[in-house]
Amino acid sequence: MLGFIYALIGVAVLIALLHYKKVKTDTRRRTYIQNYNLTFLRPKLRKYHPALSDTDLAQVESGLKQFFLANLLLKDQSLAMPSKVVDTLWHEFILHTKTYHEFCQQAFGRFLHHCPSEAMQGSNKAQLSIRKTWRACCSIASISPRKPHQLPILFALDAQLHIPDGYYYTTAEFQSDQTEPKHDDTLAIYAGNIGCTTLKSGDGNADGADSSASSCSSGSSCGSGCSS
After folding, report:
1. What pTM was estimated for this model as a whole?
2. Each residue of 19-29: pLDDT tens digit?
């Protein structure tokens, strides 16, 4: 009997240690993402959006960091990118293959791939992916996902910065008293025209991610989900 009690104590201690290690790792990765300097990408982004000020560009960087934090929070789940301007910044980051690879290893412990929107086949899957991103961003920004008083920055940026052909949202589109969202054709259209992410374990490389993203043909319906 005493041996059984010791065994239970041992298991409890092991579980506690594993939980502590996970919390410590997640905290370190979250801090790394929050403090990461993305300003070296500003000249590239300004080529696409010359009207954006330094303050605007800093907001876009914050939006990309929120997206990265959402991926850290939900780990292996595929998330849709709901902002056109943030997606452009992400593309530019990916093109710095060595730097992006090193960032992913520190931030996620694996490579964060960009995949074209064809990977989200069907409107239901696309809607689910955009909803996952919404819920994660709301959690990060301390916003109620079903009764939001404002949009998370990642969902607000395109409208806030008047991005041409950007993706504009309102809080009403996400309000729901249901545990699971009802089908929403508008959200499905948004998600069907932007990229999603997949986290790959092991020593993935940025060249592989780029070739995956570039599988869209020019002018295809995947919109900003395609790498150029």
Report:
1. 0.73
2. 556 667 789 99
